[in-house]
Structures are given as structure tokens and as C-alpha cells.
């Protein structure tokens, strides 16, 4: 508040005086004359040069202020007065040397703008949330505003006066400027007034919504303002009001029949209140939807819509809110998109608020949206599905109850039957009547009860699921269609840069998450789809160039396996084609281009967890993974080695690979020679090879990998019973994560350790050449700068040697040509002599 | 003994392709195990002898030409035989070759193995595992759970249908099984 006072109070002083002047302001001559009068009885320096005139102005101001002060006798204002005086005095003095109109004008506007800035800052400081605050200040600010206006007018007059003395010809121009200034000021004041009005109405509404419900209309009218700031403020305050007063139930307007009925006063009042609320809510929503198209107000409008959706999803007109939110769900504007996604997520996660209907609607809308845009959307719009939850136990409690019921009923009937064989019909009739009424009552109860019954919920859930999977399948289908995609690849990759299928990755994620809910009927088509996407083709002619990245294809394989595994109870199916795909994708993997985590996940789901009995295939994978781990980073290598170890443990026959004789003996099958380039793991003949990679990996610089390799190569002698004990628990994914974090922490973490180790190392001087510890130690010991210098030296030396060699070669060449020439000469001479 | 003519080759390859799929190329083009080792081991080729089709390495074929036609009983691996009607049938002897290059496989539960080896079709109840993507009419090689090839046949229903199928439903119609070595010893 202190700040505000400072800015606002200065204008407090001059008002009364100014009032007098206002009447005269138009006639400049009169104004001057009056000044003369004032000046006349104050100072006698009046008839001097223009310079003094300025001073006079100042003096006259002084007098005015003093007079005012006396009148008011207010202490705090005194200080401000003095400040004002200083300012005013300074003003003309500064203005003097410039003399031109422009210069003076500039000065003035600058001064004013300063105060304007102050108010602006204040406005922004006061958010919509402190509506009350605004209301509290209202009384202060209104008079202040007026004062300020007057003061600036006076200033303008003063300026005019000075100008008049300089040259009277510019009067006209000046008045124009004045008009403009006034206009600006009035607009500012208007803004203020409106803001205050907004706050007032808001407060009223919050205080007593039933009585002041009509005020909503006024609020809505304010939102029609041409000033965008006002519109924004109006929208936000309406949002706050609606959030507060919207009831916890859905309003149903009374039918005409009901209207005709005579009702009590309170009911009528309530009806009026509800209908007004509903009407203005509708108007507000319509306004939001229309304003949403204007770029400047768009964010505010979308924010309002989203928070409404979040706060009151149960209320009327949810459909229209949802529609506009979903429309913006893949907006190119990050903030808008995030807002919309958050709103949709909250719909999905807070189903209790609206009983699940909104979820279904939202999912359907998104599905339509995806369909309409031909799957060219931002992945966020599909990622929202991940926060959906499907309760599988909805019907179960009822199902458990139901079988109990008929038994009871049967018992009852039996008992009744046995007892009432001779009973009268009246009793039976009575019972039937009772039963009927009971049924009626329960039906009524169901209709009235807030929570939807489990059957409805189940239906709703299954429909939601259908819509979700429909979207997913649509995306998959779209990604499979190369002709449609090719044309769009350019446009999309230019705009969003996330490849031609922006939705595919999140779609696969979603499928993975909900794989246990997929209907068995879909499964065949789904797997077919995934197989094609993963790049498998029946004819290995390479005609179909796959347009998906390696990570995406790996993900396809993973999803296929997850789908299969989650439905394993039906039938144990061997996904041979996907194994083939993984086998080939291993070759295409590049550590920097592709996501290592996906690879590790693929290894985990397909090889590490999968029940694999096919010996040839296992052997092929073991061999390829071992080769793979030789050529890639430590994290990938570790994941691969963990898988290899697991495979070797499971398939005891594959341990032949660890033996040191090539050929594989009788196990090798029909293929006698290992073919590393085979596309099918079954015919690669891996059993005929030897895992020589392991002995190289034992010398790996990373200690964990070398120890892992050593442990694998020592598995030869292990008997099957023993192997169960040593079963490793770490999955490839875990291993990958461990090592990739270790890689980041490698340097700093091992520094301290290396210092400790140094001493022990110094004692035992002889060490293995490839000792990983030693290498690590050196890695840390060597300073970066030293290294650069040494490299530099080395390269200079190398370059020198090369240069030397080159020169030597040239020299030799020249020498030889000279000698040749001499030879030639000699021969010529020889011939001549002859 | 003579090389197959075009029609016969088509008939043989058609039957083989049902089982091997694209792997047929590998099967035909694989380097021979016998013969001069090192520089050029030669390839395998198909020969027709007494209505039977044999799969043998080139070197073996060359050596077999020394034997008189009526004296030659067999050479290489017998794949199958042409019936009197002119159609081609695969026989059990081709099992190893098919198993190595098979695309669709079915694994039997240990309890169902014997029944299959006695010449019965594979039922759903005996099915332990099945390759994904089998469609009715595909050639399927039948394995035991320890990956030992037992025989082959034609799929009666797709993988999808197998899920919903009844326990007594036939999954694979048998064409040949290893039990024939005992049962039909004379005919082979």
C-alpha cells in the first residue's frame, strides 16, 4: 500500500484550485489575465523578460499550493505538496532552454508516462484473485483518478501559457494535443472504473448468489468490452464466480407442465435462480468459445475452459466445454496444449466427479479428433489415454453376490412351498404384491441414487475401451499405409520434426499398458499389424523399405510380446516372426541414434522373460548378442551379456558354444558352418561356432562387464542342478540403467577411490596390461590440459615425420628423374658418337 | 535316375514351400557337406529315381551314376514320392530337412507325443505351443517339448482359432510321423 500511496497522493493537493481554473481553461487570454492579477499582488517583477515569467509561474503555483494547504490543513499531504512544488518548479525551467513545442511536449509526456507506469504496475500486481482488494481500494482510487486528471490538465494549461508567450500561432495544434491527452486519461479512468465494477459485482455474487444472480448479466456485458484487458479480467472473474456458485448437481430446467403448477415462493425463487445461472453460464461458455478464436485472448479463454472442466465436470454443457478443450489438445501452442491435456487427465483420473460419462465423451471426442486430422497430431493428445484407469473388478462383487441370491430365493420358495401347500391364495397374492412394490421401490432408488450402478459403469467402461482401441488401431493402420504417409512426410517433418508418425510411439505405449484388456478377436489383426510395422516381410527381397526408426520397430516387437504374455492363459504362442525381427534389428542398432533403453526393454521382454525352448534360436541370439556387446557401449553390452547369461542358464545345450571346438558336433544340425549374415536365427548355424567374444570381453575396460564375461565363460563346467542357485536376478533393463547411470558418475565417483588405490598399486608394480582399475586410475589422473598438450606434441611430431617423408619422396623422385635424364643424355651422346 | 522336369520341380517345390516358406531358397542353395572340402563344396540337387525324389549333393550324384539304375536303391535323402496319379507326397525321411527350415511349428505336450507317433492327428488338448500366424492349410512341423522333430502335417485351423477351439478339436492333420519308420518299414 505504501507504494500506491506514494504514487497516488501527490495529485491530492491541487484539486480545489484546479476546479476554479477549469472553467477558464478554454479562454487563454482570460487565463493570462488572471495570472497577471495573481502575480500582480504577489510580486512586482511581473513586467520583465520571459525568463522571469517562468519563475512567476512557479511562484504562483507556490501560492496556490500554500493556500490549498491552509485550507485543508492536512499534514501528510504537505510533504507531497512540496514534492509537487519541486516538480513543477523544475518543469518550466527545464522547458525553457528547449523553447520549441516538440521539446516541451516530450518532456511533459515523459512525466506523465512515469505516473502511468506506476498505475500499470499496480494493476498487474493486483490479480483477479484480489478482487476484494480492488473493491476496498475503490474509494481511494476514484477521487485519486479525478485529481490526477485535473492536475495533468493544469499542467497542460501551464504549458499552453508558456507557449502562448513564445508564439501564439501554435495554439490550434496545442489544443489538439490536449484533446488527445484527455482522451487517454479518460480511457485509463474508464478502465479503472470497470475494474472496480467487476470487483464489486464479484463480491456481491459471492456474498449472496441467490439474490444477486442478476449481476451475472452485467458481468457478461463487461466482457463485451472492446478493451481486451477488461475482457480478460471479466472472463477470469466470471470463472472465479462460476466455480464458486455452481451447485454440486446438474440443473434440470422445469418442463412446461411443471411451470404451470403452483409452487411455493422458495421453489419459484430457486427455479429463477437456477435458470438464470444456467442461462448466463451458457452465454459465458459461448463467449469463451468465440473468444477462443482470437489469438490475443485465446490463452485466457482456454484457461477458463480448462479450469471449468476440471472444477465442474458434472454440470450442464459439459459437452461443449469438452469439445473445445479436445479441439485444442494438440494445439501448437505449448501452454494451451498443456492446459488442455491436464484438464483431460483430471477428467480421466477424477471419475468420481462425473461418474465416468465425461471420460467416455472425452475419449470419443479425441478419437474423432484423431480421425479428423488423419493422425497428424501432437503425441500429447494420445498420451492422455495413459491416465485412464479401468477397473476390472466392477462387476465381480455383484457376480459374487448374485449366485448367492438365487439360492436363498430358492430356499425361501422351497420353504414357502412346503409350508404353504395348503395355504390360502390370499397369502400368495399378498406376497406377490409385496414383491412388486419392493421391485418398484428399488427401481426408484436406482433412478435417484447418485452413483451409477455397476452394470452401467461396466458398459461405459467397455465403450471407453472400444473408443481407445479404435484410436490406437487407427493410428497403427495409418502408420502402415506407406502411400498416405509419404506425401505427408515432408510437410510434417518440417513442422514438428518428430517423424512422419508422431502418434505411433505413444500409441504403442498405450497398447502396452492396456494390452491385457484387448479382446482376443482383435489379437490376430493387431499382431499382423505389428508384424508389418516391425518390418517383417515374407519375401526377403527388401522391396519394402521400412520407414520407421529402429526404436519404433523394437517397440512394436515389445508390444507384441506384452500382448501375448498378458493373454498367455489362452494359448502358448511362439512369436517366431518377431524373434526374427529382433535378431535383425540388433544389427541395425546404433547407440547414439536409437534409444538404448528400448533395446534393453526388448531384450528383457523377448529373451529374458520369454520362455524359449528353441535351441537353435537361443544359440543364434547368444552368438549375436555376444558379438553385439563387443561393438557397443558398456551399458548396452551389459544388457546383452545379462541376457546371454540367462539364455545359457536356461538352455543347457547351448553351453556347447562355450567349448573350445568349432563345429558343434551332432547338435549343429544341418548347417555345418556359422553364417553371421543369416536373417533367420534358426538357420544361422550358431551352434557350430564358438563364443570367442567372451575372452575378449574379459579384457573390457569396465570392471563389471569383464567380471560378467568371466562368469559366463566359467559356466561350462556347471552342472544343471548348480545353475539354479546362480540364477541372476538383474534384468537387462536394470543392468542397462545401472551402467548408464554409472557412466555418468564414472569420473567423479572413482576419483576418490583411485587415490586410495594408488598407494596399493604402487607397491605391487607389475600389473596386467588391460587391468581395468589401472586404466581407470590413469583416466582420472591425467589432467585435461596435459592431455591436450601431449596430443598436440604428438600430432606436431607426426606431422613433421609425414612432411619429412613427403619431402624425401619428392627428392628421390627428382633425383631419379635427373639421373634418368642424364642417362638419356649420355645415350644420346653415345648415339651421336656412333 | 534323372533330374526332375519342370512340372515335377514345380510340384516338389510347391509342397516344400508350404513348410519352409522363404527358407526354401536357403535349403536349395546351401553348400554341400560331402564332396571336396575347401574350394567348392558344390550344392544339393534333386534327382528322381523310381518315382522317388532324392535330395543329394552334387558329388554324391556324380558317384551314384556309376551304379546301374536297377541296382540303385537310394541316394542322399529321400524327400517324397510321386504317386501314380502324378501328385507329389512328402515322406517321413524329409522330416529332418523340413524341421531345420520350418516356418510354422507346433510343440506337443509329452502326454500327446505317443498318440501322434501312432498316427493320430494333433488335438488342441495336446498342444503345448504353436507359432504365431499359422493359417489353415499351412505346412506345420511337429516337435516334442525338447525340440525333437516328430513329424509334420497340415494345420487344420489358425492360431487364432486354436485359442477358442474345443479341447478335442483337431489342430494339425498328420501327414507323416516318425512312427512310420516302424509301422511302414517295408514301404519306405
UniProtKB/TrEMBL annotation, chain B:
One of its GO terms (molecular function) is RNA binding. InterPro entries: NIP7_N, Nip7_N_euk, PUA, PUA-like_sf, PUA_sf, Ribosomal_synth_fac_NIP7, UPF0113_PUA. GO terms for biological process: ribosome assembly. Residues 104-179 form the PUA domain. GO terms for cellular component: nucleolus. It is found in: Nucleus, Nucleolus. Its main location: nucleus. Keywords: Nucleus, Ribosome biogenesis, RNA-binding. Pfam families: pre-PUA_NIP7, UPF0113. Belongs to the NIP7 family. Interacts with pre-ribosome complex. Required for proper 27S pre-rRNA processing and 60S ribosome subunit assembly. This is 60S ribosome subunit biogenesis protein NIP7 homolog. It comes from Musa acuminata subsp. malaccensis.
